[in-house]
């Protein structure tokens, strides 16, 4: 796994335990699936003048713990012990501020094109590794961004097949992914 250290992170609140994974989808610009613009956004180096749709990203400070690209390559941007800035205004089962207690995984994709088989497999592998590391994360604690910010966020969207992800999650045996 490749590791890039995003400046868009901070410490989790004292005593806060990781007990949830939030799945996201991202495409920059819309409908394009190259990982570089996403990496640049998370690293704070995106040239917002390089595409007309990037104008509203100027000054945005956002990150996720991990990104799974279309080829299944995983990049880690924020150590799991730290808070990534992925969920924004959010709540789950009465708890506000999901960044405080969750791991954010961005999957490169959108609402128009199906995700790739290797993305399902590698996202599931990563989730299984995280579930082993953080036993409080059960399958019911892997949610979509749309679940924690309904009406505000759509991702991972209608193209993300939760049943396919569930099958991948159940089949993963090799969990040799090293996360920090």
Structural commentary:
The chain is an alpha/beta fold and 180 residues long. 22% of the residues lie in helices and 19% in strands. It contains four helices and ten strands. The strands form three sheets. It has a six-stranded mixed sheet with strand order 1-5-4-9-3-10, sandwiched between helices. Strand 7 (91-92) and strand 8 (95-96) form a beta hairpin. Helix 2 (117-133) packs across helix 4. The chain is globular and about 45 Å long. The mean pLDDT is 96.
The overall strand count is 10
**Low-pLDDT regions:** none
Compute the average pLDDT: 96
| Content of β-strand | 15-25%
**Overall radius of gyration:** 15 Å
Basic shape: globular
Q: Oligomeric status of the shown chains?
A: single chain
Strand order of the largest sheet: 1-5-4-9-3-10
Number of helices: 4
Helix proportion range:
10-25%
Summarize the biggest pleated sheet.
6 strands, mixed
Structural category is alpha/beta
Distance between the termini: 10 Å
What is the succession of H and E elements? EEEHEEEEEEHEHH
């Amino acid at each position: 796994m490749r590791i890039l250290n995003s400046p868009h992170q901070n410490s989790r609140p004292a005593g806060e335990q990781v007990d949830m994974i939030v799945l996201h989808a991202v495409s920059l610009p819309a409908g394009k699936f190259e990982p570089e613009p996403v990496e640049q956004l998370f690293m704070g180096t995106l040239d917002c003048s390089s595409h007309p749709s990037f104008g509203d990203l100027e000054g945005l400070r956002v990150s996720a713990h991990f990104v799974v690209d279309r080829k299944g390559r995983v990049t880690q941007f924020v150590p799991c012990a730290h808070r990534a800035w992925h969920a924004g205004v959010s709540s789950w089962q009465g708890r506000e501020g999901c960044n405080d207690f969750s791991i954010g995984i961005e999957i490169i994709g959108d609402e128009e094109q199906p995700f790739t088989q290797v993305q399902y497999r590698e996202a599931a592998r990563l989730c299984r590794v995280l579930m082993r590391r953080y036993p409080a994360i059960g399958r019911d604690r892997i949610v979509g961004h749309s679940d924690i910010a309904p009406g505000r966020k759509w991702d991972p969207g209608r193209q993300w097949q939760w049943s396919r992800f569930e099958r991948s999650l159940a089949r993963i045996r090799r969990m040799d992914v090293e996360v920090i």
